[in-house]
Structures are given as C-alpha cells and as structure tokens.
C-alpha cells in the first residue's frame, strides 16, 4: 500500500505549508503529497513551493477544479512545477467540484461536467505531448476558439517549453460516468465514497472504462486508486469520533444543494444511504446539532484510524479496502506518519521504485 500526506491548506485563514512534515514523510518512503482547493488558497502554488524543498516525493493535486482554469493553463502549471521539481514528480488530480462553486465562485456554467472532463484531459495530453500545434474539436471545448466574441485570429500553438509528456493526470469522481471516464482516460482515480464493498459498487463501471482504453493511454497495471484515511493517536476514541462528526455532517448535509450534493451521494455509496438522506434533511431544516448526532460512528471509522498505536495497528486492515493502491493520510500527530509507514512497510524498501 502506497502512502501519501494530505494537506487541506485551503481551510486555513492563514497560509502555512508544513514543510517539516512533508520532508519527514518523504524520508519514510511516502509516495506523494496532495494539496486541495475549494474557494480559498489554490492547490498548485504550494506544490511549486515544495518542489524546491523536497527531493523525490511526488507533488500532487487532490484536486484542482477544472472550472478554475483552462486545460492549457493547468498543463502549464503542471509542466512548470515538474521542471522545478526535477521531472517525473507531478500528478494533476482533476475534479469538477459542484454547481454552487462552479457557477457561484468561478462564474462558469455547470453544463455537462463529464464531457468537459473528457475534453479537458485530451487537451492537457496534447499540450504535454507537444507533437503538433494544439487543436481540439470537442463537444464542450474547441481550440482555436471560434465561439461568441471571437475575432477569428486564434492560432494553433505548441508550448515554448518542452514539457514532460509523462506527467500523470488523475480524476476525482464518485458517480458512474466520471468513474468510468477515469478508468478510460486517466492514470489514476481519487474516489468519493470508496468503502468496504467498493469492488462490488464500482467493479463493472471500472471494467467498462478499462475496456475502452486506447494504446495511447497508460496500461492497466499503472492505474492507481488512492483512498483517504484520517489518523489520530489518542486515549479517547469516542471523543475522536465525535470531533469528526460536525465536518462530516456539514459536507453531507450542506455542501451543495438539495439536488446536487456529491458528499451525500458518497456516504450513500459507502452503505449509509438512509443516514445520508436524514443528515441532509436535518441540516437543511436548520437542525444542525441533530444532523451531527445522526452521523454513525461506523461511518467515521470506515475512513479513520483512531486510538492507541496498538488499536490503530489492529484497525489498519479495515481501511485498506480491496482495490486501493494507496492511502492519503491526514493526521494531527507527526508520530502517526511513522506508525503507518511501519504498517504499510514503506520505509523497509531500499529501492523507492517499489513505492513510486
């Protein structure tokens, strides 16, 4: 099992990149460091900063929102950070976010996100491969642009910089259309709602996507699936579970509209459909404390390792769900990184190639 460190910097009122933590997990054989964005700090700038302060850990976005940038701009970010980092260290995880952020924050139409993602990845691949001047005739994105407001002077161009064509592109998704698309065109998948029964939930969708891959896509053996795990070393497991419920209730109940809430859907896919519906009903009715109380302990522990080091070691197999190739770790305890490295065996590998 590959390990990664997750940084949710966009939630902080002030920017602080935990460089020492990233360097420490790099020394433990961790595969990657992942940054995110919502409507705060962006996911790419911290990776550029870390590129000059680390040696080999991969620099990954989990995720950049496609509505925030054109695909060519995201490819430019990727190739620049990869060059600063010495090459073969960047992973661009893409996500569509939700209608409230896409239309409310970025001023873009929600439209057809699955079709947008397909065009977006195709354009990024063309930029990074630099085989010919950039053109694209997709259902959602066309280059050169000839739509409303165009003056007709658009010219197909090649990147001035010679980029690394091997920069990885992953897709974050939970619904069947985008999960299938990830299996078809991406190098990896960041799932929403990946639980113990995930192979039954997603198996057919992934299989259909892999069957559509072309020779220009990565081979199946290179496809990664990274889940997430929250870790806390504590003597009070009940308090640790309770402390995680307000954020879960907020996401499941209020992160999105009544009709479009991907976190509610993700909870349902993990086997808690009735609970997800009830939490959203309570949250939208203004009964937030009741919504928090409705979050099941079992749901929290499906994606968390809480308690003493001995309890965490016992619980470890329960978060390594079948099909996952990696886990993105979030923890307030620096010593937890070392504990998980021992459980996953990452620092026992002299050849880091097994952990890349």
- Spatially, the strands of the biggest sheet line up as 1-2-3-4-7-8-9-11
- Within CATH, the superfamily of the largest domain carries the name Luciferase-like domain
- The strand count comes to 11
What is the chain-wise order of helices and strands? EHEHEHEHHEEEHEHEHHHHHEHEH
Report the biggest beta sheet as strand number plus sense, adding barrel if it closes.
8 strands, parallel, barrel
Distance between the termini: 11 Å
Strand content: 15-25%
CATH C-level name of the largest domain: Alpha Beta
Count of DSSP-assigned helices = 14
Give the overall form. Answer: globular
Question: Kindly state the mean pLDDT as a whole number?
Answer: 93
Radius of gyration over alpha carbons? 20 Å
Structural class: alpha/beta
* CATH topology name of the largest domain: TIM Barrel
* Number of domain units: 2
The helical percent reads: 40-55%
The low-pLDDT segments are 350-356
Q: Per CATH, which architecture of the largest domain?
A: Alpha-Beta Barrel
SSE map:
Elements: E1 2-7, H1 19-27, E2 32-35, H2 45-51, E3 58-65, H3 71-85, E4 90-95, H4 99-104, H5 113-129, E5 136-137, E6 142-143, E7 168-173, H6 176-185, E8 188-191, H7 198-211, E9 224-233, H8 237-254, H9 262-269, H10 273-284, H11 288-293, H12 297-302, E10 304-307, H13 309-319, E11 326-330, H14 334-344
Parallel strand pairs: 1-2, 1-11, 2-3, 3-4, 4-7, 7-8, 8-9, 9-10, 9-11
Antiparallel strand pairs: 5-6
Task: Please explain how this structure is put together.
The protein is α/β, with parallel strands linked by helices. The chain folds into two domains: 2-230 and 308-355, TIM Barrel, CATH 3.20.20; 235-304. Helices cover 42% and strands 16% of the residues. It is built from 14 helices and eleven strands. The strands form two sheets. The protein has an eight-stranded parallel beta barrel with strand order 1-2-3-4-7-8-9-11, surrounded by six helices. Helix 5 runs parallel beside helix 6. The longest helix is centred in the C-terminal third of the chain and has 18 residues, at 237-254. The protein is globular and about 65 Å long. The chain starts with a strand and ends in a 12-residue tail after the last helix.
